[in-house]
Design brief:
The protein is mainly alpha-helical and about 190 residues long. About 65% of the residues lie in helices and about 0% in strands. It is built from 9 helices and no strands. Helix 2 packs antiparallel against helix 5. The longest helix is centred in the first third of the chain and has 20 residues.
């Protein structure tokens, strides 16, 4: 995994789909990160998890062969907790691409430090996502570092939840590249 390459891909896919045709303040982009965090909570409330340990990956690939990637993705992956966490990271990567933030140190921290997403000893998704959201509002840190903190924590959370986040990011980027402009939304 190379976060700078993923950043560039996420930004390019967003540009190709019209997300950067209009200029918006940074608050706009950061709010979109927060909405994705909220969608992860909604998926958890519905107990919607992609179970990579119980053959969901194999079933997904068989469905890709039978029905095509987009249909299989919609059936097996879309709107699960892991899909929404991947969306958060992709939104962060897109923002970092727009701002030209270097993610080399972020990648090192993910690979070396194995961040603990649950320092309060909580496994409650609402509390974890609240803590991650609060990182975006930490005015004592530069904006670049706040967004990188979110990425780092999401990789730690994914490891904690046994989610192959890199796989989910790859699948979601592939899916996003097939979608209509603005993914059929206003922005």
């Amino acid at each position: 995994m190379n976060l700078n390459e993923l950043r560039d891909r996420a930004y390019n896919i967003a540009c190709e789909h019209g997300f950067h045709d209009k200029e918006y303040a940074d608050k706009h982009w950061l709010m979109l990160v927060i909405t994705e965090l909220s969608e992860a909570v909604e998926a958890d409330k519905k107990d919607s998890y992609f179970d990579s340990e119980n053959n969901d990956v194999d079933a997904f690939y068989r469905a890709v062969q039978r029905k095509g990637f987009s249909t299989a993705f919609g059936t097996y992956v879309k709107d699960t907790v892991s899909d929404e966490i991947a969306d958060v990271v992709i939104r962060c990567l897109d923002f970092c691409g727009m701002k030209k933030f270097d993610l080399s140190e972020t990648q090192e921290m993910i690979e070396d430090d194995k961040p603990d997403p649950c320092p309060d000893e909580t496994d409650i998704m609402t509390e974890i996502m609240y803590n991650i959201t609060s990182l975006l509002f930490n005015k004592t840190r530069k904006e670049e570092l706040r967004v990188q903190d979110v990425i780092i924590q999401l990789f730690g959370l994914s490891e904690h939840l046994h989610i192959d986040l890199e796989w989910h990011i790859e699948q979601k980027m592939k899916y996003n590249s097939t979608r209509e402009a603005l993914h059929g939304k206003k922005y």
